Amino acid sequence: MSVPKHIAIIMDGNGRWAKKRGLPRNAGHTAGAKNVEKICLAAKKLGIKYLTLYAFSTENWMRPEAEVKALMKLLSGYLDKCVQTAHENKMHLRVIGDISRLDPKFQEQILEAERISSVYDDLHLTIAINYGSRDEILRAMRKVGTAIRDKELTPEEITEETFQQYLDTKDLPDPDLLIRTSGEQRLSNYLLWQLAYSEFYFTDVAWPEFDEEELKKALNVFENRDRRYGGIKEE
Ligand code: IPE
Ligand code: IPE
Ligand code: MG
Fold first, then answer.
1. Residue 4, pLDDT above cutoff 80
2. Ligand 1 close to Cβ of residue 51 (< 6 A)
3. What share of the chain is helix, strand, coil (3-state, %, to 5)?
4. Which of 104, 145, 189, 235 has the fewest CB atoms inside 10 Å of its own CB, making it the most exposed?
């Protein structure tokens, strides 16, 4: 079985999952956060090397303040726990997105978790927090502009490879497979550059219920896709 090296997931549907059960939206987020641990372990077991999870978008600040607060608290709590599991599972943790808008304590916590886990290589778990692909590309453009101004780079040197080095994902390969749970079929500003040649898999299953079996279904579909990269199939 050809297992994708890198899977990116848009973890959607926590709110609808909760509503269906007569629970508040935040109960859905709690259930969703718990599921992250399970999926990390399942991914590692299945031989996936890179997992990149969309946890909070640049657009998610538009949600009610109480929900944003609850999400930040959950993420910070999750990260705390994650440092322990990082040791147990030899997991290299990264955060992508503009963390400068987050609470300073949370920022420190992120940097520390990244530092501590950087020695591990079994599973590379990346969490997107205050991440928006357009924002990431613009931040990269500003860095490129600064490098040109400071004569560290010439415009001719801007190739796909050099530009990639200015993105938050500079240390990650492009995802082979994108999964979005809970029915919506859009990218919602996720990894626009990086997903240029990825396979897409959409499922109606809500994130809190997306388990190892569901992940295996996605892998089966992926295995049967005909990836061509613009070429033609060799006979
Ligand atoms: C995904 O679930 C979690 C975040 C976007 C933070 P949602 O909260 O978007 O759940 P739905 O889409 O409203 O069901
Ligand atoms: C995308 O989900 C962002 C995350 C999963 C973190 P949303 O629920 O915010 O996306 P839209 O608003 O339905 O596009
Ligand atoms: Mg949603």
1. yes
2. no
3. 50, 15, 35
4. 235
- State pTM to two decimals: 0.97
226 catalytic per annotation = no
Q: How many CB atoms are closer than 10 A to CB 45?
A: 11
**Whether residue 234 has pLDDT greater than 80:** no
Ligand in closest contact with the CA of 9: 2
- Largest Cα–Cα distance of the chain, in whole Å? 59
- The mean per-residue pLDDT over the stretch 199-206 comes to 98
CATH number, domain 6-132+174-223, options 3.40.1180.10, 1.20.1250.20, 1.10.300.10, 2.30.30.60: 3.40.1180.10
Is 14 tagged catalytic?
no
Atom 2 of ligand 2, residue of closest alpha carbon: 12
- Which sequence spans correspond to the domains of the chain? 6-132+174-223
Distance in Å, CA 102 to ligand 3 centroid: 21
Nearest one of 176, 49, 41, 36 to 121, comparing CA atoms: 49
Mean pLDDT along residues 80-91:
92
* CA 12–ligand 2 middle distance (angstroms): 6
Q: Is the CB of 70 under 6 A from ligand 1?
A: no
**What confidence tens digit (pLDDT) does each residue in 132-188 have?**
999 999 999 999 999 999 999 999 999 999 999 999 999 999 999 999 999 999 999
Could you give the CA distance from residue 225 to residue 155 in angstroms, rounded to a whole number?
A: 38
DSSP H or E run through 65: helix 65-89
Decide which of 17 and 234 is more confident: 17
